[in-house]
């Protein structure tokens, strides 16, 4: 019998169109660009059937034998919320926070919409039945999901009044009795080549007359006419030299919709800018999904910190005051995000649907400050490692080649053998200097949206008077 992970891999053989280097990929699982990543995901999926791990990542439905992932758990109590948190923690620990779109984020969005289905049913009379059917299917079939929300970056200064731009944004070209036909593109969908379904929505605030661009849809990856266009692969099969790139390459893709049919049961909302915005702003779904982001982020900061500590020790610089100051800064980063995770959970409140949702304001703060923490953490690692990152042989196997003795002699560190030191610095380079590493820095800056507007939004949506009123009061009192 196939394991859960193997079933996942097999299910990807469904006729989807994945394009890489000008070719359509056949046999995703054996392709060098995806093999290592899919092996990682297989391991994560199998955790749900492992007697030692399934309680950490999953829960059992009444009357069922097998476990489902906790991202599908609707939290009505603190215990439920913490179970969700634990699953995010275990999956991200397992991948050192380096895989951020393992579908637990997108699954949480679906879970949130399902949990708030009665409230959201006010947006559309069919919403409740559609989301219930889809949530149940996604949960029971272990569906891997990802989101594609942003419209293509063509000319951000032009509005949709510019038809040259508008025609390339995703839009409905035709409606039939059975569903809608879509044309246009969406960027970016991480994990797209190996996802089952895309959650398609929009970031833009469309005007009523631009309604043909405003939808929330579930689109199967193997839909006819849908092309998943991959960026260059950063996967590197040299496991000893690129520990991260060999196993954590989450491919990013653009989606081309070439008259793609989507049945009505997968059209959650369509042609309505206001309702799409209301759904996108839904607090239940956003809290549950964004909560995953910040739990995952802790694991990543801990990973960078671990590497940086090890580098500092390995070359004997950890005793210098300014190095200790930087190492302390990394710990402060971790504690800051951890504290915000805890605060969001402890201050969770029941919403209108009776769901215990983590406090969104702390989550927004963690996501926003995180855009600045990660680049700074990498900067600290660079400052501490100096030229050590390039003071390594071309291949780990060089240790066993012609110059073996010299290698062991010259590459030794203060506390570690030459082999271990080279391995460590290669790992660190994979984080700060490889294509995968650079992509991660970009990811942490932008995954939650444009950081500039996200920071500004925190101000715009704040209760500003609660800050300014005491000032005006003080001024009034002092001028009496
Ligand atoms: C590695 C990576 C993976 C991603 N994965 C996913 C994914 O899986 N799913 C998904 O949905 N999205 C994903 N994203 C997309 C992400 O949501 C967007 O990158 C983000 O929302 C910013 O949009 P943009 O990239 O189009 O930048 P733009 O909006 O084009 O911004 C570019 C620059 O222009 C400025 N700018 C643009 N327009 C304005 C304006 N109107 N006012 C002021 N300033 C403006 C911005 O401040 C920024 O400095 C991913 C992004 C990255 C980098």
Automatic annotation (TrEMBL):
Domain of life: Bacteria
Keyword terms: FAD, Flavoprotein, Oxidoreductase
Domain HpaB/PvcC/4-BUDH C-terminal: 285-469
Domain HpaB/PvcC/4-BUDH N-terminal: 5-269
Pfam families the UniProt entry points to: HpaB (PF03241), HpaB_N (PF11794)
Originating organism: Niallia oryzisoli
The protein's name in its UniProt record: 4-hydroxyphenylacetate 3-hydroxylase N-terminal domain-containing protein
InterPro entries tied to this protein: Acyl-CoA_Oxase/DH_mid-dom_sf (IPR046373), AcylCo_DH-like_C (IPR036250), AcylCoA_DH/oxidase_NM_dom_sf (IPR009100), HpaB/PvcC/4-BUDH (IPR004925), HpaB/PvcC/4-BUDH_C (IPR024719), HpaB/PvcC/4-BUDH_N (IPR024674)
């Amino acid at each position: 019998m196939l394991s859960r992970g193997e079933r996942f891999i097999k299910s990807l053989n469904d006729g989807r169109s994945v394009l890489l280097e000008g070719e359509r990929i056949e046999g995703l699982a054996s392709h060098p660009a995806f093999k290592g990543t899919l092996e990682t995901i297989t391991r994560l999926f199998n955790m749900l059937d492992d007697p030692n791990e399934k309680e950490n990542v999953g829960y059992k439905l009444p009357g069922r034998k097998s476990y489902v992932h906790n991202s599908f758990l609707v939290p009505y109590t603190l215990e439920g919320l913490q179970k969700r948190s634990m699953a995010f923690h275990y999956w991200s620990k397992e991948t050192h926070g380096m895989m951020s779109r393992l579908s637990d984020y997108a699954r949480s969005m679906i879970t949130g919409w399902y949990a708030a289905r009665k409230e959201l049913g006010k947006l559309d009379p069919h919403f409740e039945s559609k989301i219930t059917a889809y949530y149940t299917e996604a949960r029971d079939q272990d569906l891997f999901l990802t989101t594609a929300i942003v419209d293509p970056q063509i000319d951000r200064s032009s509005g949709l009044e510019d038809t040259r731009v508008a025609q390339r944004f995703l839009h409905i070209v035709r409606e039939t009795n059975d569903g809608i036909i879509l044309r246009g593109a969406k960027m970016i969908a991480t994990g797209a080549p190996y996802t089952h379904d895309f959650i398609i929505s929009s970031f833009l605030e469309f005007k009523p007359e631009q309604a043909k661009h405003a939808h929330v849809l579930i689109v199967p990856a193997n839909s006819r006419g849908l092309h998943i266009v991959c960026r260059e692969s950063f996967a590197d099969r040299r496991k000893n030299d690129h520990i991260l790139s060999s196993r954590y390459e989450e491919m990013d893709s653009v989606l081309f919709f070439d008259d793609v049919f989507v049945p009505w049961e997968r059209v959650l909302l369509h042609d309505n800018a206001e309702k799409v915005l209301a759904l996108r702003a839904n607090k239940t779904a956003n809290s549950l999904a964004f909560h995953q982001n910040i739990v995952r982020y802790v694991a990543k900061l801990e990973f960078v910190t671990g590497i940086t500590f090890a580098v500092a020790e390995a070359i004997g610089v950890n005793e210098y005051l300014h190095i200790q100051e930087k190492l302390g800064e990394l710990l402060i980063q971790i504690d800051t995000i951890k504290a915000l995770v805890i605060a969001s959970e402890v201050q969770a409140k029941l919403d209108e649907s009776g769901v215990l949702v983590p406090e969104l304001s702390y989550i927004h703060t963690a996501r926003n400050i995180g855009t600045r923490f990660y680049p700074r953490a990498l900067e600290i690692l660079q400052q501490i490692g100096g030229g050590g990152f390039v003071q390594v042989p071309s291949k780990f196997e060089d240790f066993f080649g012609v110059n073996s003795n010299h290698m062991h002699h010259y590459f030794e560190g203060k506390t570690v053998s030459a082999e271990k030191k080279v391995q460590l610095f290669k790992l660190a380079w994979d984080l700060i200097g490889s294509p995968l590493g650079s992509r991660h820095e970009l990811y942490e800056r932008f995954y939650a949206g444009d950081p500039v507007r996200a920071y500004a939004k925190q101000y715009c949506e704040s209760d500003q008077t609660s800050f300014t009123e005491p000032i005006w009061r003080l001024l009034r009192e002092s001028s009496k």
